[in-house]
Amino acid sequence: MDPAPPPPLPDDALASVLRGLAPRDLAVSRCVCKAWRRVVDDRRLLRADLLPRSLGGIFLNLHGLWFTQFLARPTTGAAVSGRLDYTVPGEPDRLPIIYVRDHCNGLLLLKHCVVNPATRQWALLPPRPDDLPQPPPPGMDVCTDEYLVFDPTLSPDDFELFILPSVPHKLKQSDEECEESEWPPSTLILSVFSSKTGLWEEREFGREGAAAGTLPGMVGSVRSFFDHQGCYWRGALYVCCSDCFVMRISLSNSTYRVIRLPTEGGEFYLGKSIKGVYCASLFQESQLQIWFLNDECGHDQTEWVLKHDRDIFPILPNLNYDEQCDGPWILQEFYYWGPEQHYDEISELEVNEVIVEDKMEEKFEWDSDNDNVLEPGSRSNDSCIVLLGFHPYKKVVFLSDKFDRVLAYNWSISKLQDLGKLFPKFYIEHDYQFFHRLVSASFPYTPCWLGELPEKLNSEARLQD
Fold this sequence. Notes:
F-box-like_dom_sf; F-box_dom; mainly beta; 8 helices; about 30% strand; five-stranded antiparallel beta sheet; about 10% helix; F-box domain-containing protein; about 475 residues
């Protein structure tokens, strides 16, 4: 006869034990049983440091490559791996695309799931219904991009996906009959997926304020750089719907507003940073402007405030990058497909070399605010600067340069830092397979140790099955 199970620990004793857990383990402990979750929540053991309040690195999508790479910022805390193939059911040699499509407060959106790399939990996504997305309103185009919304301070176990229409380059024939119609429409119906219900639904949003104009004056611009640009800030989703406009979706009161970007033309990047929503723009290759969106100057008013305007070409460093070398940040390189399936020229040995294992974690244990400050250097009269995003908690914008390096530019002191290499070894050595070495999307990543996603499987459980 089996011995009787030991009596449960008193709440005080259990709370004392749980307080000593590392952030990842404490977050996972909420999933063990209801009693443990109750103790964690009632005793407020979920500390503020479990929220997404630090930068963990940058996820990078490269042109022609369907495996997202991860430039990891070393930390003295728990390291996070950018390897995501543990979310894929089935045989390891039959993996689908592992490609990050969006990020919000520590969660990543992939084609098949939403995953939290910090806790290694994920939620599989159901197939999108055939009738989605819904036909767009007059003066807008169908857009199949999904934007992820996750706010752990409001609901740490739930997320939503939004499909927003975009502004077309020219009016469709069906819209020409409505040329005098105001734009944007007074009511916007969006397709929204809720993890709480597991269903897609139509959600109605009313326009705030007056129309921006009529249809003929609102078209004629397309997104010429990163197609997927958006961010979530204090209950609202901000999405670039063209090179001219940002759409602000307020989730608390089901309203929306279209905001004209501060500049038109050139390269730009919309994201959130230290005080809210920012837009970085590049003109004449190296003239960098940083704009802040003052969204609190009135109920139906917004104002872009210029925070920085400088030609950064004179301070760009001129370093020898003939050899691919790491910086203070480490590029975790991932190539999931075996050589027998794709790119036969890449040997199995090389594939194994570029995949980062968990043992690499000790390699990027690091903590410094100075990273690698660079001195200005003489450069040839050419530059190729690409905006990669904002540091969420500092006055820093991330760039890449012609030498395939990732740089951090602090606009408060006009200093540049070299963070590390941009492209993995196999991507450079076999660039004839990829035609152009370009960044197609980038997502600054903020680890979050909160939340419980429905899918309880993890990589360790898969190995045990």
